[in-house]
Design goal:
single chain; 190 residues; alpha/beta; Rossmann fold; 2 domains; 4-stranded parallel beta sheet; two-stranded antiparallel ribbon; 6 helices; 8 strands; binds magnesium ion
């Protein structure tokens, strides 16, 4: 009887350890697995500048709702983030404004919780050939903070992209100064 008990105990221990190991490996590599799945599927992640790209102070750019709805349909709300040099209060402020535009609540909540701002993804400095220093929104840093493959990211920003070190990944937006007949976002959808 003792021998049988011992045998059963060994079998249980063996399978327990195996399952535990598999579970552990799954947990550790899940992060990398997600990373490679995103890379393999070539899913795009869109970073959206706030000031003078989507808003002018508290005025949303015309056609903002159509534009965001279109992005959600194309890329899924989980792949859309704000990226602002300002602090998180600015993100909360614009999220309140888009609540009134009847935009997908999941998107608003995602933007409010996971967007990039000065506190979690600060601007980077870049020294140009002429010795002058510019500050820019770093896609490389954003990729590290969000744990998303670098080459799947696109940034829409009104800041001049001609001297941006990662300019190939920036869509240079026309600046928005609050004019209500502005149709840039509508043209972007088409
Ligand atoms: Mg801007």
């Amino acid at each position: 009887m003792r021998v049988i008990n011992h045998y059963v105990e060994n079998v249980i221990n063996y399978w327990f350890l195996r399952i535990y190991k598999i579970f552990y490996i799954f947990l550790v590599y899940n992060k990398y697995l997600t990373y490679f799945c995103i890379k393999y599927k070539k899913m795009k992640t869109i970073l959206l500048d706030i000031d003078y790209t989507l808003f002018c102070e508290t005025t949303p750019r015309p056609h903002l709702k159509e534009f965001l709805d279109n992005l959600v349909n194309r890329y899924g709300y989980e792949n859309i983030y704000f990226y602002t040099a300002a602090n998180h209060l600015r993100i909360t402020e614009v999220c309140r404004i888009i609540l009134d535009l009847n935009i997908d609540k999941k998107l608003i909540s995602h933007l409010n919780n996971y967007s990039l701002f000065g506190g979690n993804c600060s601007m980077q400095e870049f020294k140009k050939n002429d010795g002058s220093i510019i500050e820019y929104k770093s896609i490389k840093k954003a990729s590290e903070v969000l744990n998303i493959p670098y080459d799947n990211i696109v940034l829409l920003d009104d800041a001049p992209s001609y001297d941006h070190p990662e300019k190939n990944m920036v869509i240079q937006a026309e600046g928005f100064n609050g004019l209500l007949n502005d149709d840039y976002l509508k043209r972007l959808i088409l």
